[in-house]
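User: Could you write out the 3D structure of this protein bound to fe (ii) ion? I've included everything you need below.
Assistant: Certainly. Input first, then the structure.
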Amino acid sequence: MSETLEAPKAAMHANPGLTPTMLNHAAWVTHDVEATHDFYTRIMGMDLASTVIDDKVPSTGDDFPYFHIFFKMKDGSTFAFFEAPGLPAPSKSTHPAYDIFNHIALEVSSREDVMKWYDWLTLNGLDVVGPTDHKGMILSIYFHDPNGVRLEITTPLDENWNNHTESAQRDFALWIGAKEKAKREGRDITQAMIELARETRERYGD
Ligand SMILES: [Fe+2]
């Protein structure tokens, strides 16, 4: 019998106190940097912060030319885009959930500001979804930039919305536990998760 060689698994080390400070930038591909520039400076009110022109990607060495552009928010965090000529259109999502769930949210100061954004975006011809009250945590509206990036403008309704660590730990265990139990019992996982969601919904008063 031959011995099976297994690759050594990485050890699970405890984090030594390293947590990122803030969002530096989030980046996407654009096929129209002029429309992107107009959208982020005029409509989103961001400052043009920085640019790079190169014919080689520094991190990987890939040699295609690109224009890299950054737009800055009030806290210094940025949105960035790359325009590279000749790129084919991106592949389509395999399920609508990807287009709904993948998004980035930008914070504003108040409920009134969310509604000012709603009016401003609508005035500019954008399709805006909402406002949606997320279980008393945050109030949000949703729309898309010219590149199809789903954006959210949100304001916290609960000042501790991002500080519910203990209940989040319990929910994490609940979700993982229910999923593993469904797997063990050979049940349909989607159905088991629907049941879990219905059982926990009572807490939100829905
Ligand atoms: Fe969100």
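Residues 103, 105, 152 surround fe (ii) ion (CB under 6 Å).
User: Perfect, thank you.
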